[in-house]
Each structure stands twice: as C-alpha cells, then as structure tokens.
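hey so i finally got around to running the thing on that chain from the lab meeting. sorry it took forever, my laptop kept dying and i had to restart like 3 times. anyway pasting the input first so we r on the same page abt which one it is
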Amino acid sequence: MSELLFSNAQRAEVLTQALPYIKRYVGRIVVIKYGGNAMVNEQLKQQVMEDIVLLWLIGVRVVLVHGGGPEISSRMQRLGKQPEFVDGLRVTDRETVDIVQMALAGKVNQSLVNLLGMKGGRAVGLSGIDGRMIAAKMKDERLGFVGQVTHVDIQPIMDLLGNGYIPVVSTIGADADGNVYNINGDTAAAYIAGALQAERMILMTDVCGILRDVNDPKSLISELTVDETRALYDNGVISGGMIPKADCCLTAIAQGVRNAVIMDGRVPHAILMELLTDEGAGTWIRGGN
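ok and heres what got predicted. didnt touch it at all, straight out
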C-alpha cells in the first residue's frame, strides 16, 4: 500500500505544476453545470463538492448551476404522474412545475449547499426566481411551462461572490405575470455564464466530450475553435444528444464566456483535472475562431 501513496516530494511537485493554472483562475469566475450521474452517485457527488471547495479556497469564484431530473421524476411518480419528454425536454404542466420548484429550489439545492458546507465551503442557495434573477417565457406550447431565458440579472450572484460565498443556482425562472418555468440546466448555465462574462463554463455530462466516432471513446476531440465546432454539425460528428450541449457552449461563448468545456462528470475529480492540468478532461471550445 505504501508504494501507491504519494511521497511528500511528489505532493509538492503536483502543487508546483498546478501553480500556473491556479494563478490563471484566481479571482476569475467559473460556472459549473452539475447534473447527470455525477449528481446521483454519492461518491462522485462528494468528490465534486470537494473539487468546488478546493477551487473556492484558492480564490476561484465558482458558481454552481444544477439540475435535478432524477429527483423530479421520482417525485412525479410518487404522485402518480408519468414523466413525459419531447426533444429531450420535460413536458411541464402546472402541477409538474410545482413539483419542479419543490425539487430543484428545495431538496436538491439545499442538499448541495449543506454538502458544500460540510466540506468546508460557504455556500448560499438561489433559485432563478430569487431577485427576479432569471426572466423567462414559454419556449413551446407543446412543453407547457418549460422556459426560454429572456434575461439574467446577475446582481444576486455577484452579491454572494463579493461576500465570499459559493452561489448554488437552481434552474427555474419566472415571467412578469408570475408564471414559473422549468428551464433546461445546460441552457440556464450558458445564459448565466454569459451574463457573468465567465472565464470558463464547464458542462458536466455523462459522456467524455465530443467524439469523432461516437462508438470510440479514444476519438475524443480535446480542443476546438467556434468555427471548427460549427463544422462538426455539418459533417454529422455533432449529432443527437450532443447537439444541445454544443449549442449551449456556443451560446455562452457568443455572450462573452472565454471558453467552454463539455466533460465527463463520472470521472473522479474531473473538474480539477480540467482546470489545473495540461491534459484537461473533456472537449474545450475556445472563444474566437
């Protein structure tokens, strides 16, 4: 067992190699969209929270945006409602939007805030309704109360960052008439990151990134420009479920995010690998051409 452990010198070397990356991100805003298997696997959840607290402790201004699809579906089923999806989006009637609000702004959000606190961080939960932070309108009548973001007021988030907290944001929004909307987590993260002019947006997913061959994990494309990403739509490399994720990255970059990453949230400590190593941990789409 002792042969597998780092020596003190090796630990020091790892920290030294991370120093240039730490200097790059200190004081910068990084938006992390958290969901998928990394959220439902308890061990991975612990590691993700540890990564976020470590980044916070070294001075990175982390904003955690989360989903909660499994919790919503579980609550619906307990109430006798069968989840229904159209084009990957949950059909959300008035009863379902109440369930979404309870699940996301309630249990899921507060459990993450609590876990970050247990790891030594200082976190505060927000929903998109707080401070009218996320304004939305109905995206498609077929989907019911599924929202399209129309505006993000970043002041509540900036107030928390300015006071040394980790904002934890659940992705619901509202319109001027008080209607509450369920908003896709990746989409909300893109608009929030754009409004914040974040240094980086990280989408944690259940795949390792954009693959040239969807059947070959070794075909991961580690780095792309915006134009190269668009070209991959044309030749069919970006297809299926990867289309909306790539769309969100391009949306974020178009609004001022410096770069965006699609990465596998199932890999332990993937966030630290992405931000603090040469190799990274997914597909990095950089702003510009």
